[in-house]
Every structure is written in C-alpha cells, then in structure tokens.
Amino acid sequence: MADTPTKVVVNCTTGVTEVIPLTEVEIADMETARVAAEDQRAAEEAEAAAVAAAKESANSKLKALGLTDAEITALTK
After folding, report:
1. What is the pLDDT of residue 1?
2. Residue 27 in contact with residue 3, Cβ under 8 Å?
3. Sequence-distant (≥ 6) Cβ neighbours of residue 3 within 8 angstroms
4. What does the pLDDT read at residue 2?
5. What is the DSSP letter of 22?
6. Domain ranges for the chain
7. Low-confidence stretches of the chain (pLDDT beneath 70)
8. Alpha-carbon gap, residue 31 to 10, rounded angstroms
9. Residue 66's pLDDT is what?
10. HSE-CB of 26 using CA atoms within 13 angstroms
C-alpha cells in the first residue's frame, strides 16, 4: 500500500477518518494536473524571460539614443 497514493476522508458527522487508496482514474487525473502545472510554470518562466529580454533591449536602445540611466528609469517607471 506504500506504493499506491492515498487520500484521507474525514466524516465530519461521525469524526471517523479513513485512508483510502486512490483509484487508477484519480491517479491519472493527478498526473494530468501535474503535467499541466509544469507546462504552465514553463510558459510563465518563458514569458518572464521574454519580458526581461525586451526590457534590456529597450534600455540598450534608449542608452544608444543618449539617455542617461536616470532618464531611462524615469521613463520606465
């Protein structure tokens, strides 16, 4: 039973607590949710990297135009 994921079910009326093995469907659903969460995290990290790269590119272009760091900060905040 140690290899099979379990869930805890508490009957609030009686106070009885049961540890029940997950069904194959519940395990599959859990795996699907895990994969979706990983995909979401990867997408968010890629988006953050793209935003950081765009910001760095914009700052470089503003410096090439002759703006100071203080002026760039004033424009971007």
Report:
1. 46
2. no
3. none
4. 57
5. P
6. 6-76
7. 1-2
8. 24
9. 95
10. 8
